[in-house]
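Audit log entry. Action: structure prediction of a protein-small molecule complex. Ligand: adenosine-5'-diphosphate. The ligand was supplied as SMILES and no pocket hint was given, so placement is left entirely to the predictor. Protonation state taken as written. Sequence taken verbatim from the request; no trimming, no tag removal. Recorded inputs:
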Amino acid sequence: MTRFRWRIESPEAMAALGDAFGRHVRGGEVFRLHGNLGAGKTQWVKGLGQGLGVPEVINSPSFALIKPHQGRLALHHVDFYRLTNPRECEDLALEDLIAPDAVMAIEWAERDPNFHGWDAIDLSFEFGEEDHVRHVAIECRVLSHDNLTHEVIEEAGFIQGVTAL
Ligand SMILES: Nc1ncnc2c1ncn2[C@@H]1O[C@H](COP(=O)(O)OP(=O)(O)O)[C@@H](O)[C@H]1O
Ligand SMILES: [Mg+2]
């Protein structure tokens, strides 16, 4: 398993990080996003959508638990912030939406009781020491996810604040 952490100094840089993932994902990836309200999860997904070529601007799914988008690949944006009953997760049957031509990003993923069941990429968002700073840690357990992360790290100049953990 490999772990890295980025220091992200603006909302735009957070979207740029997501964008880089959007351009490099192969399809089939599930991103589980962890972190408190305002930590930047949705901002990252906005960028993921841009990188995938989703035409509309991505916002929080608000009252729906899941919102579908279509770019180069399908993007299933899931947000369990308003989950009241874990059985709602079963009804969504998210496993059925994991496909080679789709990626999934799940905010508040730890609220899903099946949380441990997937071979997912975990991203943890934390507040930094200043208002405009966030830290994003990534954990990859599979070689292909590791390769993806390295492509993202190598690509962009804004990702200078990356540390191997
Ligand atoms: N470095 C940063 N990265 C991401 N968001 C930031 C950053 N600095 C400030 N922000 C602000 O923090 C908020 C993040 O909100 P959001 O992405 O919706 O969080 P979450 O989905 O984790 O609840 C936005 O208002 C954004 O403008
Ligand atoms: Mg959010």
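Audit: result stored. The first strand starts at residue 2 and ends at 8. The domain at 2-164 is CATH 3.40.50.300 (Rossmann fold).
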